Amino acid sequence: MSEEKKLRNIDELGEFALIDQLTNQFENRNPNTLLGIGDDAAVIALSETESLLLSTDSLVEGVHFNLMYMPLKHLGYKAVAVNVSDICAMNGIPEQITVSIAVSSKFSLEALEELYEGIKLACEHYKIDLIGGDTTSSRAGLMINIAVVGRAQKDKIAYRSGAKEYDLLVVTGDLGAAYMGLQLLEREKEVFQANPNIQPDLDGHDYIIERQLKPEARVDIIQYLKELEVVPTSMIDISDGLASEILHICKASKVGCYLYDEKIPIDAKTSMTAIDFNLDPSTCALNGGEDYELLFTVKQEDFEKVNSNPNMTIIGHITDEKDGIYFIDRSGSAITLKAQGWKHF
Ligand code: ADP
Ligand code: MG
């Protein structure tokens, strides 16, 4: 009898361990590949001073979106925005995208045109060109993959790995709203499924719903940083929740961190909805995800510049690796920071 080989389940592994397991045998062969796997975008040398940035992201029906409450036009816009966000996370400017779709016959031409209307709006808003893609059929549902190309000055690129002890930890905008928007949409969907005569009660929740359905990439922050003459020492975009992204920066930079609960920017509408759902607003910001805000570190000497910008909030500071990664709660207790993040498996 042949020995049975135990097959490993990818659920137990988790997304990041899986990527690592699949890719750790690869080496870069071309000298112009300045950075491959491991950051928000790959970095390819264009000249002595300029680099090309390349990133890709997929949205899968039933995993990343539900067409019961996600209009196709919004979906098209969001698919572009989340890709643009990864170029912003490198301190770069997005320039081109390709769009590939796998689509089942349940979709009409008109439905797909709506999707592309959203893509077009995003191309106009972010000043990027749609330059290609691919179209195939799918057995069930819709999948969109977008690849984005951007550009940056080599010495201005912000990697995940550049944070240093004493740097300030900064976040843009406010957090947790997209997650609460999703909770609300899911609740109303269930109410509707249970009784289709009950109309969704979304009044007064425009902000959090818009944050879920129509997130914006923070291209404006890249412009502010340029005007302020601040180059982040490290940067990442918040797709999986603040906690997960802080851990990515700390791991890549080999540093520790103190994050202060009382400093985390959370909109009052997000907090109110969280409390309504019996959730702790800070937990929503830490683990919610899909905010597409930017998390970055700057040198102490940039304190005034960052502090004076209303779009940026200092939420902590970087420590030595051996000091650990801590969340300081409102009573002053230090709790080891852990990430739940999104697990799509
Ligand atoms: P982000 O959240 O910024 O989109 P991910 O967590 O998806 O980044 O990916 C982390 C890194 O792993 C990136 O450099 C990405 O290009 C790379 N990566 C993800 N999936 C794969 C894969 N299947 N094969 C090769 N590289 C991958
Ligand atoms: Mg990213």
Predict the CATH topology of the largest domain.
Phosphoribosyl-aminoimidazole Synthetase, Chain A, domain 2
CATH superfamily of the largest domain: PurM-like C-terminal domain
**Percent of residues in helical segments?**
25-40%
As a percent range, the share of strand residues is 15-25%
Largest sheet: 7 strands, mixed
Query: What order do the strands of the largest sheet run in, or round the barrel if closed?
Result: 8-10-7-11-9-12-13
What is the CATH domain class of the largest domain? Alpha Beta
Counted up, domains total 2
Structure summary, number of beta strands? 13
Q: Supply the helix-strand structural class.
A: alpha+beta
Count of DSSP helices? 11
- Element order: H for helix, E for strand: HHEEEHEHEEEHHHEHEHHEHEEE
Q: Give the distance, in angstroms, between the N- and C-terminal Cα atoms.
A: 33 Å
Round the mean pLDDT to the nearest integer and report it. 94
Shape: globular
The radius of gyration computed from the alpha-carbon positions, rounded to a whole number of angstroms, is 21 Å
State the low-pLDDT regions, or none.
Answer: none
Give the ligands present.
adenosine-5'-diphosphate, magnesium ion
CATH architecture of the largest domain: Alpha-Beta Complex
